[in-house]
Amino acid sequence: MDAENGELAFLPLGGTGEIGMNLNLYCWREGGRETYLAVDCGIGFGGSELPEVDVMMADPGFIADRREALAGLVITHSHEDHIGAVAWLWPQLKCPVYATPFAAAVLKRKLGEVGLTNQVRITIIPPGGAFEVAPFKLRFIRLAHSIPEAQALVVETPIGIVLHTGDWKLDAAPLIGPPTDEAALAELGQRGVLAIVCDSTNAMVEGHSGSEMDVRTSLSALIRGLTGRVAVTCFASNVARMESIALAAHDAGRSVALVGRSLRNMDAAARECGYLKTLPPFLTEDDIDDVPDDNLLILVTGSQGEPRSALSRIARDDHPRVALGEGDTVIYSSRMIPGNERAIGSVQDALVRRGVRLMTDTDHLVHVSGHAARDELRRMYRLVKPRYAVPVHGEWRHLSAHAELAREAGAEPFLLEDGDVLTLGPGRPAVTDSAPVGRLVADGSRLVPLRGEVMNARRRMLFNGIVLGSVALDQAGNLRGQPSVSAPGLLEPTDRETERVAEDFAEALRDLPVGLRRDDDALKDAARTALRRALGRLFGKRPLVDVHLIRV
């Protein structure tokens, strides 16, 4: 690489201006040639703002069109918003993947579920290891986070060093894995860092994020004093928290059963990589009824109110193996992700209605964040001493707060949104271009654009309903029988309004010119308009309308 002729750019396709869907690109341009490096490839969730969406991800179209220039994909850690889209999007990228042993173990399970195990080349990099994805010279730096083996990525180029932090915090006792390698960060700062691309999740939170050790101590004291069945829900990826819960249960004379697929998968990946080795195997759902209530702790998925999660099903009393009721306790060892308040509240209401006692982070020390608060961000800037700062992994208010803090620390911040191309050098960084961005929605086994016709129709059906009209005509264009109208989610089949709509629809069809009624395409358009008007007069709504035409 030639520093005089080369140019380095950073381009977020997802995860900047939002939390989730992380997909970042670095581009080295030299001699008219571009080479790209992708960092992370994660999912996001629809939440209350997009009720028609379950899982979504950044549209990789920009880099998929340039995949011959994509040298590789590096995974900083195995949280869903950083790794969850790989199995969905890799067929469009078809590049080598680089990950630590734990992230590779998690990813291989995901790839196996979609039949890609033997197609994706995964290179395992030890935590803190150096490697090359030509023309990029790369190195991991170990960071503490709420999942094992979180790594910052050092991107070394002839025009300077960029530190891409991924997600991180400073925790002297993270319990699983070592603390953040502050010595390596300080050494990097001594060498000189051109720019830091840094997590902004808790940039609005003063103070420190807290330590996992404090949560372990609190959980042990809390669970020891409880009777009846105890269920604890946490983020499945927080292996240190799983260990803390299991140790607290052991101290209280309780056996631990895992309930939920994501917990079982994470347990398997952790044990494969040498974590949780001091714990005996967890019980399964089938073992629960064999354990007295006072000797049982259930570790369960569903901390964010996901409707199909195990805890949601328990709250509805339709789980096939697990029931909770009067005298039992549920501990939420997690935070409430913004947007999930209503879903979580519904589950908690249902549990309380069944006589269950709730404990959350609002009234007990049962959770600390995995993301750096402002004091930790200040410490990072003192160690790394970057010339420029690029806040990522946050909504606009988080990015703005981070930018203010970076400026106070002596770094010049650049606020970006997905699609902005920031040329980092040579010379002073500047946004020099933009790339097309969008979101894809996982719809069954396929991906569809969030703003495409399929999801637009889904939104209209969700809020305004759908109406289907069926019309039979002979070859001369005469109506045969009465048209039928079906409006699931809008009209009851036996409502008088349904008959009125059908009658208005039939009258409008009979008023159409005979010549038009002989032309199938013209007739369908006119019939849709007629049915839409009949519904508008009755309801004042614009549902999705379709007409089935039958020639007899």
Helix content: 25-40%
**How is the largest sheet built, in terms of strand order?**
8-7-6-3-2-1-21-22
SS-based class: alpha/beta
Biggest sheet layout: 8 strands, mixed
| Gyration radius from CA atoms, angstroms | 28 Å
In CATH, what is the class of the largest domain?
A: Alpha Beta
Q: How many helices in DSSP terms?
A: 16
Record field, number of beta strands: 27
Distance between the termini: 72 Å
Number of domains: 3
The CATH superfamily of the largest domain is: Ribonuclease Z/Hydroxyacylglutathione hydrolase-like
Average the pLDDT over all residues and give the rounded result: 92
Overall shape: it is globular
Task: Provide the β-strand percentage band.
Answer: 25-35%
